[in-house]
Amino acid sequence: RNFFTKRTKELKPAIQSAPGWKLFGKVPPRENLPKDSKIIQQEYEARTGRMYKPPPPSARRKNIEFEPLSTTALILEDRPANLPAKSVEEALRHRQEYDEMVAEAKKREIKEAHKRKKIMRERFKQEENIASAMVIWVNEILPNWEGMRATRRVRELWWQGLPPSVRGKVWSLAVGNELNITPELYEIFLSRAKERWKSFSETSSENDIEGASVADREASLELIKLDISRTFPSLYIFQKGGPYHDLLHSVLGAYTCYRPDVGYVQGMSFIAAVLILNLEEADAFIAFANLLNKPCQLAFFRVDHSMMLKYFAAFEVFFEENLPKLFLHFKSYSLTPDIYLIDWIFTLYSKSLPLDLACRVWDVFCRDGEEFLFRTGLGILRLYEDILLQMDFIHIAQFLTKLPEDITSEKLFSCIAAIQMQNSNKKWAQVFASLMKDNKEGDKNHSPALKS
């Protein structure tokens, strides 16, 4: 004991004056006294032979936007005092690597800053265009709707997308109200739906629901609720407890009572949801009922196979005309339009495309009618033609079922504009009318997927 005590007292001054290596343990506080900042600076200058000079005030970064941020830049420091110093070659190499990393970080951040500024410029420009268009729609077009709706100026303005503040109003006017539905009629069918749901919840069991008629079964609370929870799940506003959950449920329930011959069909919730986001409750129901009364929507929601096949046949006529290579590629795999078109048409692209882009498709759809739905489908195929030509049947079906999320309105609408809806001097309506007359044409283009 005396031996070690004596040795410790002898070595104590040496340990304090010359720090050494210590592994797997903490240096006791008495052996690691804190150094003053001036002493640390003096040791650094004595070791490196360089004097530290603080940067002058004028050398401070003026344009922070194009400088590397603290999260990406690196700080080059020498090794701690208790480690061997770097050699000259190693120090030079580390300095060069450090400068290269900082330069790359700076380039990357400059590029990102330019990208952000470009996005902001485009956003400001878009907002200015929307504001100026809104003034035109509110002050000039809407007060003189019947006289101006078909003019070239209005159609061109319409193609660019409707301002969100007038979108619902324009949709209502464009869709019309041929069914002469009133808000009072909506309240009648809504109350009838509530009574039916109440009777189902009180008296009916699951077996009773299974044995009920198609209209009653699909008007039940549970079946509609199940589809509502799947409507725009990322928005959460239509989920249970969300602000629009009960509203969407009311519109869908009232429609099933209004049209028991159609009932509730999966996909309707997306159409009703888009209308609810842009219109008041009663107006959304009126537009919903009239929209689903159009020939194309009625054929699909009634699952009228013969009519659906004629729409697919008409689509393929223009598909072959506009995209012959892709048409032959699809034909080689026996990939028929129903595989991807059914989902697009059922939800009017509101499920397949980003919501803001889907609303712009709706804008022109309300202007041009069913033709634009199929023209949009051809625009999507044109946009991704090069990718689709490299895929097989399975990958094509998967790709078109779930389109990329980064699709932009500018790219899509430029492709839609390039689609010519004319075949042998016949437009869409003429081609479809000729197919309606020829019943055999539907049999020739019979789609195996519809059998299942």
Automatic annotation (TrEMBL):
SMART domains: TBC (SM00164). Residues 161-369 form the Rab-GAP TBC domain. Residues 88-123 form a coiled coil. GO terms for biological process: vesicle-mediated transport. InterPro entries: Rab-GAP-TBC_dom (IPR000195), Rab-GAP_TBC_sf (IPR035969), Rab_GAP_TBC_domain (IPR050302). Keywords: Coiled coil. This is TBC1 domain family member 12. It comes from Leptosomus discolor (Madagascar cuckoo roller).
